[in-house]
Amino acid sequence: MPTRRHFISGLSTALAATWTQTISAAPDPKKDVVIGHGAHRYKVNKDWVAPGQGRHHPILNCHEMVQVKDGRLFMVGDHWDNQMLIFKPDGTILDSWGSAWPGCHGLTRWDENGEEFLFVTDSGLWKSGSSGFRQTGRITKIDLSGKEIFSISHPMSVGAYEPDMFFNPTETAIAPNGDIYVADGYGSNFVLRYDARGRFIQKFGGKDGPADQRINNGHGVAIDLRAGINKATVLVTSRVDNCFRRFTLDGKYVETITVNGCKVCRPVIAGQELYAGVCWSTDPVASKLPGNPSGFTVILDAQGKVISAPGGSEPIFDDKGVMATLTRAEPVFDHGHDVCVLENGDLIVCQWNALQTYPIKLEKV
Description:
The strands form seven sheets. A five-stranded antiparallel beta sheet has the order 1-2-28-27-26, with no helix packed on it. The protein has a domain at 24-56 and 260-365. Helices cover 2% and strands 40% of the residues. By secondary structure, it is mostly beta strands. The chain has one helix and 28 strands. The N and C termini lie far apart (40 Å). It has one helix at residues 13-20; strands at 34-37, 40-45, 62-67, 73-77, 84-87, 93-97, 104-112, 115-122, 125-128, 131-134, 138-143, 148-152, 171-174, 180-183, 190-194, 200-205, 221-224, 233-238, 243-248, 253-258, 262-264, 268-270, 273-281, 296-300, 306-308, 336-341, 347-351, 360-364.
């Protein structure tokens, strides 16, 4: 539970609109770095969070970010005292709190009868000094003030796992009917489905199935509504396999969306496009540097074709439509972990293992 609650409440609609509709200035080619391709090109703003705020709001890794209706941006990380950070869209930190989720990794917003809630995913994997620990993970539903509504613990408790199976979840997604899909991406690699009250329904996936259908490092999960609510599907990351797997809502395999050379993180759907951070690529130069800083971001259209790779190489396809392997092209990102898409098309990219730096803003040009 948060220990400090200094939230900005009662924000006017006009103020929220001002926050989310700021038009970026035209880039100066002499000093501005512009990355991306086609209609998705961005000016890099590494100082979105002004220097000096870290003294009161320290971080380790920036994992995932969502935006709520009043314009605020909520981000989870794994610092022992600041697992939830709240920003204005101009990068000002409004507050930070949280010590109950030491392996804090995933964050999902859910609108339930007009009230907003957050689902926080604690992977159960965390560090203390130079040591690392594996504990069991959990999912917690909270309101925007941090009040806990309920939590989901080890699937063994509902008979879905055997006692020796790890549960180290990475992400959740919520279906239109309120069903909760949990990606156990650092544990046993199943997707676990619960109803809106947290009652277990089923599990599917796993990494021991057919090679072209398995989930191996199921880092993220999203509900894809782009084809309409009656054709909703579940997109699950298989990061080791450089792809996303698509399933029906009841867990039947549909297809694979391959992103050559990209160890993609969670799928983020905005409009008709899919955005994802790339934590590592097969970049032969960066892979030899300390920490392997080879990340960037990717944007895919509704057909699953990469149309831009901000920070990465240009997507090039052969005459059969097969994309050449993407690599990092600009040293902007170390390890892209999540992409938050703002209403005006700007992106905020959270990073893992990036020298304790705050997220980078990409301003669309």
